[in-house]
Amino acid sequence: MKKIMVLMLLLFLTGCNTNKDDFIWEGLEEKVIIRGDDIDLLEGISVLKKDKDLSDKIVVKDDDEISTHLAGGYTVTYEVTDDNGKKSEAKKTFIVQVGHNVANGNFELDRFGWTLDVPGGQATMNVENGKMNIEIGSSGTAWWAIQLKQENVVFQAGKVYKLTVQASSPEGHSLAAGYEDPNNGFRMLNPGFQTMKLNETMQTYEMYYRAAANFSNVKVAIYLGHMLPSDKVVDTHHITIEKIYIEEVTVKGSTTFSGYEPRVQAGSGSLNTLDPLEGVSVKHGTTDITNHLIVLGEVPKEIMIEGSYYITYLIKFEDGSVSYSIRRFDMVLSKDHPYEVVNGDFDLGFTGWIQDVNQTNGTGKAEFIDNEDGTVSILVSNVSSAGWHIQLQQASSQLKQGETYTVKLIIKASEERQVDLEVVDPSSGFSEIAPTLKGATVETEWTTLELTFTADKDYGNAKVGLLLGNVDGLQMNNITVIIDYFQVILEGK
């Protein structure tokens, strides 16, 4: 028995000596990373030996080709060498999960994850030296006419997210960002768009959004269509984007913003003298902090289509939290009567009109040209597979039940072709308000097309549209149509 006890004691003492010489690692617990987030593989990792800190000698021996842009599990191997040349290894598991950030926001994976959509403009993209370069030939008439987009982003109800974009444009093109819900017809989640005019130096764009619900598949879009007057492309415009990043932020309570209407309606050209700081004050508790107020966004002096712009009043606190408030401007265009469309005689070019080329569902391609003589031209170089894939449309007509209207279109083409003329309700899945005039022939001389109907109920924003895609499966490419007049007329007036 004594021999056994002596042997156990020797083993115990030997074990103590071994532990005394061991490397003691800390910070090796499994770590979950939100896809797209920045990471330092050495952060939080430490190692001691005989109470000596060797953390500054730790190296990453094998990073398992970890990429925070690709969801999955990764095992990183670390190594440290003491002063006597003795080595020790340790491993840590990293789990990359899809979350509130975008993938490949620094473009280190070239164009992976990103799509350039041009439903109403003309643009191309390429990635060079870790920067996204976008070349714009036409910005169309709408903010969404050009979009750099990505889906599969996750938001949690009540959380506030800050989106940051680092971008530049030597021609002074503008940029805005937004979130859409693909599971609900791509409904906009933020209240319009907050736009910023870029310049030749790299600038930082910020946008804040509080999620109203849980969203499992958010579309993140960088809008590069027409928003400010400077977005009109005479020559080519260029935009360079270095980084797109979304992070969760904390909003500090007890902050009040006052001195302005949170939502106003304004006509194009009516805000030429707008001072966004006039009358605005901010208090945190009882302390006035107005002198720390930051204004994000710009409201245009003139617009091409109606839409909602907003600016953000922002306070940043030293602890990294923020307070903010939104001021929304619903911009409208004037017209003589509610039932009419805006600029039906095209004296203002395409103002009021949507240039709609759907490439998500088809291959449509068209060039919209302001002839600057009261007419506009549309060269359809790819008719795609359906009429609605290419449209000139406007949803601004207010119709009253029982009243009779005529949609009148004066048009000609470089070669004879067919078009569709429709009046539909966007608020009801684009259901017909009037039977669509299908396969109407447009000749090489001026042709007048008319569609007369009686409204079966009141409509707030009826859409009139000229469909220029492949309306019957027989249309040819590279035919130009020229339009002189496109208007809704109330019969008897």
- At the fourth level of CATH, the homologous superfamily of the largest domain is Galactose-binding domain-like
**What is the CATH topology assignment of the largest domain?**
Jelly Rolls
Q: Percent range for helical residues?
A: under 10%
Low-confidence runs of at least 5 consecutive residues = 1-20
What is the name of the CATH architecture of the largest domain? Sandwich
> So what's the CATH class of the largest domain?
Mainly Beta
- Count the helices. How many? 1
When the domains are counted, the total is 4
Number of strands: 35
Share of β-strand residues: over 45%
Report a brief summary of the structure.
The chain is mainly β and 493 residues long. It contains one helix and 35 strands.
SSE map:
Blueprint (H helix, E strand, L loop, with lengths): L1 H20 L1 E4 L4 E4 L11 E4 L2 E2 L5 E4 L9 E10 L5 E11 L17 E3 L4 E7 L2 E8 L8 E9 L4 E9 L5 E8 L5 E2 L5 E4 L5 E8 L4 E9 L13 E13 L5 E4 L4 E5 L13 E4 L2 E2 L5 E3 L10 E10 L5 E11 L21 E4 L7 E6 L5 E7 L7 E10 L4 E10 L3 E9 L5 E12 L4 E8 L4 E9 L11 E12 L3
Give a written overview of the molecule:
This protein is mainly β. It has one helix at residues 2-21, and strands at 23-26, 31-34, 46-49, 52-53, 59-62, 72-81, 87-97, 115-117, 122-128, 131-138, 147-155, 160-168, 174-181, 187-188, 194-197, 203-210, 215-223, 237-249, 255-258, 263-267, 281-284, 287-288, 294-296, 307-316, 322-332, 354-357, 365-370, 376-382, 390-399, 404-413, 417-425, 431-442, 447-454, 459-467, 479-490. Strands 8, 11, 13, 14, 15 and 17 form a six-stranded antiparallel β-sheet that branches. A hairpin with a 2-residue loop joins strand 21 and strand 22. The radius of gyration is 30 Å and the shape is elongated. The model is unreliable at 1-20 (pLDDT under 50).
